[in-house]
Amino acid sequence: MPYTVPRAGAAQGSRPRWWTELPLIAVVYAAYSAGRLLARGDVSTAVDHGLAILHFEQRLNIDFESPLNDLFTTHAVIGIPADFAYASLHYVLTPAILMWLWKRRKASDYRFLRTWLLVSTVIGLIGFTLLPTCPPRLLDASHGFVDTMAQYGSYGWWGGDASAPRGLGGLTNQYAAMPSLHVGWALWCGVALWRHGRSVWAKVGAVGYPLVIALVVMGTANHYFLDAAAGVVTMGLGALLAGPALRLTEALRSRLRPAQEAPVASRNAAVPANVGDKCETSARERERIPRQQGRGADRQRTEGAADDGGRGAGAGAGGRGGPATDGAASTAGDGAPAAAR
Predict the structure, then answer these.
(1) Where are the domains of the chain?
(2) Burial label, 28 (beta-carbon count in 10 A; 0-12, 13-18, 19+)
(3) Contact in structure between 290 and 284 (CB atoms under 8 Å)
(4) CA–CA gap between residue 338 and residue 334 (Å, rounded)
């Protein structure tokens, strides 16, 4: 079988390997979690930021979190499912859709959506660091907000520290409210489902899921309306920066590729010179092709028949040559007539 020389860049556009994707996503998520924990800031500063957002919303009459929180705390049939949604879907549905995109969609689509999600998460981390914000549930009770996660804590695994499991509240930053990545990630899921989902239910989920999460984060008093709006803006910035980020990583990869392909070039140096870049076979292999062997045998038989005909014509001409020829034939003995025949 002919040897094929690998071409540079053949792997571009191929589906990323899961053993490279999982560490990348794990590292970014670990940095996101650690950054949230380290960017706690001063509590008084976070409270001041939260009150400033609330007062600004009240002046514009866009403090939708206040009536929603009253509804969730009054009706447990709404508040309990909302708490479960806040504590789980953010961490379950987002990676599930990411895995679905990796397995079912084109590699280029997956790369863009994955990069969009990671870049937006980094932008959100910057927001947590620069603007620590106290969520409505941690404000003074005089502002009228009730922490539904604490109110219905006996129904789930969470405690009084946001959606963290009981006893692990110290491992989360409760003042990482601006922007709301619950809303941002839900919007990302909605866009992915709308663009790549083919069923009617996928389209319904694409529209309904971000809207439900926006209501949940406000009704549970975990975010202000402006936090949710900032989550949408964060995803918009991430979408704009995803393309340049992909081009930057591809440029870095192309710079590193010559060093990686050096061992391949050294192995290709041992390939025989008669093997070309276009996967041509060697001359020796072409000689062993049966059709070419058959053509060579036919050519040899044709040339042999032509030689025999020439010798017969020469003998006929000698017979018409006259007495000298007859004498030579008579002196040749019995063997000459046989040769003439």
Answers:
(1) 42-257
(2) middle
(3) no
(4) 7
